[in-house]
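Good morning,

Attaching, inline, the backbone tokens for the sequence recovery test we're adding to the shared suite. The designed sequence is right after.
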């Protein structure tokens, strides 16, 4: 079925979203990862990619930023394909935590079960499930999955990776807590190393919108035509995004935007309108929940203009 929008409408929605976002201010770059603190806070970009493979962009849409937590979605997709959704749900969980993305308390309250693959604990646990003989083989599978979603070979930024690996003390504690509870399924330091690398790849909003459009298109990349993951898993991934994709603001996002989304502390944000398109935004300053202030504004504006809310009949 053709999309109910003309190219002109889609481009106009991107431009409106971009100018609405430009008028927003506030927030600040993540500072606990030194690299992220150094990124120009004025960079801003918005891209839409449709399930029929058309791209509409505004701003610095070729600028490459750290994927950070958005990577959790793609490792989740890989592991769900490898072990199946029931096993992954049993081992990691599929519920919102209602707590910050790096919460130790959430883990303690659930007796060491991470609850969601989209918080740090759950993502480290999920990374520990990637199959492969060596840590490098497992890492290469994650990178290949991110690349297949993006439709081009993504690369790890050694600068970002170095910045994260030398400051991730809080995540090291989480990895050991998981291990002691039996919910880290490989050596915890290895799992953390892989997780930290997966957060350190570089993407533009255009890459991110293609990655999201692949989810919108039942797991088939609309640019390359490649089926990246099993179509049957997409609904589970999108449900996880709806519940936990924006952490403590996931409920607000569902209430106001009505789309599955995912943010990262690098300033990226993704929203997926199943069967239609994906919206990707980027702007480094974050609010108190760790979500891009301007990115959320752009996504909200576009979702409203194109009437994408899933809860609207
Ligand atoms: N690499 C970051 C961390 O582990 C990712 C967090 C995020 O983007 N919310 O803290």
């Amino acid at each position: 079925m053709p999309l109910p929008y003309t190219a002109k409408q889609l481009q106009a929605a991107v431009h409106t979203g971009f100018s609405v976002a430009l008028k927003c201010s506030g927030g600040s770059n993540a500072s606990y990862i030194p690299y992220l603190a150094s990124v120009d806070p004025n960079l801003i970009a918005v891209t839409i990619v449709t399930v029929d493979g058309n791209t509409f962009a505004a701003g610095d849409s070729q600028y490459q930023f750290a994927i950070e937590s958005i990577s959790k979605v793609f490792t989740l997709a890989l592991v769900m394909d490898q072990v199946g959704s029931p096993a992954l749900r049993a081992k990691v969980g599929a519920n919102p935590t209602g707590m910050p993305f790096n919460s130790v308390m959430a883990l303690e309250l659930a007796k060491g079960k991470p609850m969601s693959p989209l918080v740090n604990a759950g993502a480290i646990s999920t990374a520990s499930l990637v199959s492969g003989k060596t840590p490098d083989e497992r890492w290469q599978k994650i990178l290949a999955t991110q690349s297949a979603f993006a439709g081009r070979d993504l690369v790890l930024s050694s600068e970002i990776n170095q910045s994260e690996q030398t400051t991730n003390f809080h995540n090291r504690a989480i990895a050991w807590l998981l291990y002691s509870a039996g919910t880290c399924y490989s050596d915890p330091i290895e799992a953390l190393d892989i997780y930290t690398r997966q957060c350190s790849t570089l993407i533009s909003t255009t890459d991110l919108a293609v990655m999201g459009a692949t989810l919108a298109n039942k797991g088939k990349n609309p640019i390359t035509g490649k089926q990246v993951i099993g179509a049957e898993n997409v609904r589970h991934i999108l449900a996880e995004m709806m519940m936990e994709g924006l952490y403590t603001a996931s409920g607000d996002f569902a209430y106001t935007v009505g789309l599955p989304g995912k943010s990262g502390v690098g300033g990226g944000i993704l929203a997926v309108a199943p069967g239609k398109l994906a919206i990707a935004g980027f702007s480094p300053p974050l609010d108190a929940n760790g979500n891009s202030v301007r990115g959320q504004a752009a996504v909200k504006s576009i979702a409203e203009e194109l009437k994408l809310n899933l809860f609207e009949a």
